[in-house]
Design goal:
The chain is of the alpha/beta class and 571 residues long. Helix content is 41%, strand content 14%. It is built from 21 helices and 19 strands. It has helices at residues 4-10, 19-25, 30-34, 52-55, 57-70, 84-87, 96-117, 152-168, 182-199, 224-230, 247-260, 284-296, 311-320, 365-372, 376-388, 405-417, 420-423, 434-441, 459-472, 490-506, 533-547, and strands spanning 13-14, 74-76, 124-129, 173-179, 204-209, 238-246, 264-270, 302-303, 336-339, 343-346, 355-356, 393-397, 427-430, 449-453, 475-479, 481-482, 485-486, 514-517, 552-553. The strands form four sheets. An eight-stranded parallel sheet has the order 1-8-7-6-5-4-3-2. Strands 11-12-13-14-15-18-19 form a seven-stranded parallel sheet. Strands 9-10 form a two-stranded antiparallel ribbon. Helix 15 packs across helix 16, helix 16 runs parallel beside helix 18 (434-441) and helix 20 packs parallel to helix 21. The radius of gyration is 26 Å and the shape is elongated.
């Protein structure tokens, strides 16, 4: 089998066009969708295009063939909604794996036929994985903004089943596309990564988002840059934009993505904006002229079409794609970058980054009281006040014996997500309990920071948690503890930091996602052994900056107040 990476090095590859657009041209009836197998199905099935891979595979193959004849290098499987979450509307959840596998097998057969005809132009199959018809980041109930229609775990289960079917059917690539909620996409990527580990193989993945309005944000509110940051942990074949706009309207956002993304760039826009009848008026020639501008500007590696596009649109692209070079993949920038609805870059020239800690039940008596009372609305005002006052990251901690940490973390972060003025900044998910950290990660669409992990429980558990944090797409605070306890002297801090850094980076954890906390320990306690704590912190920080490239340092200045409990004037 030809290597798609080799093909991408030398040329711009063509993705196919709209599948639903082509299905509409067949005028299929309810009986066509049902076929013999689903003739007595209790729900209406017309419109469930994914079912056609089982009931009308010859029509599905014919569509693939038309796109291959037009010059497509990559064809997408008829599996956009072949997942248990979306298929629940038809009562077809149990058929998700079978549909996905059948869709991939039909596409594989067509692609292999054309590759055999011309081995110099190999054809590839991308397993289409749509966003589902549910959102994990937003509430469908205005009266209950903390509620969600679907959970991260449910999405992971559904996407795992779909991915397994697509791979078993012969897909070369998995395409997580039309992403309107980045948390849904993170669940898909989590599922794919876990499946790859289980299967002991590499899975090539493309991801493509869709923008909701002229502000250039996703439906869940992220900017293009924040969207890219949130998915930056995945080893993507490409990252792109599709659907939503016509090619001309998409151009400025594609430029922003190309400036930001460390991946190859894909684009498959609609054939213009929909008209009053819901159709698309952009001719193949008009479409090719606009998409050609992407190529002329050196923005893309993969181009194709979405809604309203046909084989004629792809054929026009095939005439010009060979005239342009693909976008070079930029060298890694190794800059710590986090995201809420907007990105936060912590570059060398960045000044101190302020972490607001008043939404920490251990740091604010008022906040702790509000959470215990279930007064989340007023508790939100604490977070809002921190952001208004200049906090660039909001630390949320629910570790209190009187609080259900998992439920409180999930509820509060869901409520924060519904407040754009708070959600624009990244979150620091703070807990000493792994189950609370995981609960927070499962409701956070941005790139968060986990606070914290350490070597306290040994190397195996340290690396297990680090792998999970990376799979969720987060950075991590690494506390300087090990099996012998807290590192208090400069020498001990250096010992633990260097060991943790080596373990993490050797395991593939990005150095720029490591934030060391060398522990600002209480001074002026009257205990002579504590007199050097401040100097030990400063010296260890200097050593880390000089010897552990790209890692950052966090200092919990509030820790100093612990020496003065009971003396509020000094605190």
């Amino acid at each position: 089998m030809a290597d798609i990476y080799e093909q991408l090095e030398s040329r711009i590859l063509l993705l196919d066009g709209g599948f639903g657009t082509m299905v509409q041209q067949y005028g299929l009836t309810e009986e066509d969708y049902r076929g013999e197998r689903f003739r007595e199905w209790p729900a209406l099935l017309k419109g469930c295009n994914d079912l056609l891979a089982l009931t009308r595979p010859e029509a599905v193959r014919e569509i693939h063939v038309k796109y291959l004849q037009a010059g497509a290098d990559i064809i997408e499987t008829d599996s956009f909604n072949a997942n248990a979450v979306s298929l629940a509307d038809y009562g077809l959840e149990a058929y998700a794996y079978e549909m996905s596998r059948a869709a991939a097998a039909v596409a594989r057969s067509a692609a292999d036929e054309f590759t055999a005809r011309n081995p110099q132009k190999p054809r590839f199959v991308a397993g289409s994985m749509g966003p589902t018809n549910r959102t994990a980041s937003m509430s469908a109930d205005v009266a209950n903004p903390a509620a969600r229609e679907v959970t991260f775990a449910q999405l992971v289960e559904a996407y795992t089943d779909q991915a397994r079917g697509l791979l078993d059917g012969g897909a070369d690539i998995l395409l997580v596309e039309t992403i309107f909620d980045t948390l849904n996409a993170k669940a898909a990527l989590y599922a794919i990564d876990a499946l790859a580990e289980k299967l002991g193989r590499t899975i090539r993945v493309m991801a493509s988002g869709t923008l909701a309005d002229a502000s250039g944000r996703t439906l869940s509110g992220q900017t293009v840059e924040a969207f890219c940051t949130s998915l930056s942990h995945a080893q993507l074949l490409s990252l792109g934009l599709n659907c939503a706009y016509g090619a001309k309207q998409l151009l400025p956002y594609l430029e922003r993505l190309a400036e930001t993304a460390p991946f190859r760039i894909s684009a498959h826009p609609n054939a213009g904006l929909p008209n009053v009848m819901g159709g698309y008026d952009e001719t193949p020639e008009m479409f090719a002229e606009d998409v050609g501008e992407y190529m002329r500007r050196g923005l893309v590696n993969i181009v194709g079409g979405c809604c309203g596009t046909t084989p004629a649109h792809i054929f026009e692209l095939s005439k010009i794609a060979c005239n342009y070079a693909p976008r070079p993949v930029p060298a890694p920038r190794r800059v710590t970058t986090l995201s809420g609805l907007e990105p936060l870059r912590i570059a060398p020239e960045t000044n101190f980054v302020n972490v607001g800690e008043r939404t920490n039940v251990a740091g604010s008596a008022k906040f702790a009281r509000l959470i215990r009372e279930g007064n989340y609305e007023e508790a939100l005002s604490v977070a809002r006040a921190q952001v208004d006052a200049g906090a660039q990251i909001v630390d949320v901690c629910m570790d209190d014996g009187m609080i259900d940490g998992v439920e409180a973390m999930r509820t509060f972060l869901n409520l924060m997500a519904s407040e754009p003025e708070i959600a624009r900044v990244p979150t620091m998910i703070d807990s000493s309990k792994w189950e609370v950290l995981a609960a927070g990660l499962e409701v956070t669409q941005g790139k968060a920071v986990v606070n914290s992990i350490s070597l306290k429980e040994g190397e195996a558990e340290f690396l297990r948690r680090a792998r999970e944090i990376h799979r969720y797409g987060a950075a991590a605070v690494v506390m300087l503890f090990d099996e012998r306890g807290q590192a208090d002297t400069c020498e001990r801090k250096i010992e633990v930091a260097s060991r943790a850094y080596r373990l993490l980076t050797d395991a593939g954890f990005p150095a720029e996602d490591i934030i060391f906390d060398p522990n600002i320990l209480a001074v002026a306690t009257g205990i002579p052994e504590h007199d050097g704590y401040a100097k030990a912190f400063i010296d260890a920080t200097r050593w880390i900056k000089e010897n552990l490239p790209y890692a950052k340092v966090s200092g919990g200045v509030s820790n100093l107040s612990f020496a003065f409990r009971g003396n509020n004037a000094v605190r």
